[in-house]
Each structure stands twice: as structure tokens, then as C-alpha cells.
Amino acid sequence: MVEDVYSKQGKFKNWLAVCDVHLKFMDDEVSLEVSIALGLLLSELSEEPWKGKVIQFSGEPQLHSIQGGDDLRYKYEFVRRMTCGVDLDFEKLFDLILQVAVNENLKPDQMIKKVLVLSHRDFDSASAAETSWEIDYQAIQGKYKEKGYGDVVPHMVFWTLSKYDPEKPVAPRTQPGVSILNGFSNNLLKHFLNNEGEIGPDYLMELEQLHPFALAMARVELGQALFT
Questions:
Q1: Which residues form the DUF7788 domain (predicted)?
Q2: What is the pTM of this model?
Q3: What pLDDT, in 10s, does the model give residues 59-108?
Q4: Which residues, in sequence order, are bridge partners of residue 17?
Q5: Which residues are CB-neighbours of 15 under 8 A, at least 6 positions away?
Q6: Which residues of 85-95 are buried (b: 16+ CB within 10 A; e: fewer)?
Q7: 2-226 has which fold?
Q8: Which of 5, 48, 59, 140 is a plausible cystine mate for 128, CB 3.0–4.6 Å?
């Protein structure tokens, strides 16, 4: 299994996924499958108390314990059937993670380091709040500092899983506390997995020299069993 390889390498052990499986997303089956597959993969690689868990894309996000044991298809359907909204409340998302850390009395080094949001929405239109991300992030930092986690506020990676468009930058900008990825391709997925989510300048320079990608399936990288 692909998760065994990454587990042995110690990759993604402090990551947590937020999966968008909203009905509007189901028009794009590949992106939907990638969202679920990456959510399941990170849930397997994460350490306790995050292991086996995923958060749904919603204005009222919740931490779900994925049901199904070793039955991959059952777990896939569990994530697919989560009730999602049309937007995500970023501050409530970080409040939820903080509350788990406080309830579990986690040490700072046990805090989630990266939160991967997988959605059909783009970052600027995804927020359920009327305030800007900068204002939300300041509030989030204050809450984490108050509880003793001020130095380990999770970094959010927001990945819009639309078809790769060579006219749009893959990494349009980085704001405080968040990195943004646009578009999906098999090449980008492989780079993301092999480099534990780091999309560096070398990859972006390489990408600019390539022809436009066709929309690619994630079957090979994430395991045929999940999609058949």
C-alpha cells in the first residue's frame, strides 16, 4: 500500500485533511476522488490523536473518525457521504483543532503542523466569514498563544482541485499562515506526495517549461483499489 511507503519515510505524520465532497463537486469525478483519496491517505499517516480522522468542508467543521476498519471501499464511502457546505469557516476550523489539542493535553510538538484543504472552491471565495483571512489569522494566532500553542499554529495549504490551467499560476501567492495551490495534474500530485507537500521554485520553473497537462487520474499514485 502507498501509505506504507510514506509511513516508513515519516511523511505527513503531522498533517490533517479537510475534504470537500459537496454535491456541486461531483460533476468532476476525478477531483472528488483525489479529495477523498488524499484525505484517507493523510488520515492513515497522521499520528494520534489525529490518526484515522478527517474534517469536512463546512461552515461548521467537525472532526470525523473514519469508519470502516480495513475496508478501503467502506472508508471511501464514509468520507464521500460527509455533509459539506458551500464554504468553510477558517476560524472555526482552527478552533476545532485547538480544542482537540487542549482536551488531549497535547505537547506543542504533537500539534498538527499542516492542514490540507481540498476543494473545488478557490481560496478567495471559500471563506464563510465576512472578515479577511488576515484578520481571521490574527484572531487564530491569539487563541493559540493563549492556550500555549502560539509557536505551533498550523499552516494551511489550500488546494483548489480544478483542471490544471497553464494560464493560472500553480502557487499564485503565499499569505501569512497559508499556501495556495491552483489546479490538479498527476505531475503536481506526485511532486506534492514525494516532497511532503512542499512546492518549491524548482518545480514551478520546471512546470513553466512543460506543455499543458491533460486531466490525469490519481489511480496509480493512490492505489487502484480505491477507484475500482
A1: 15-199
A2: 0.83
A3: 999 999 999 888 899 999 999 999 998 889 999 999 999 999 999 999 99
A4: 116
A5: 42, 45, 46, 112, 113, 114, 115, 116, 197
A6: ebbbbbbbbbb
A7: Rossmann fold (3.40.50)
A8: 59
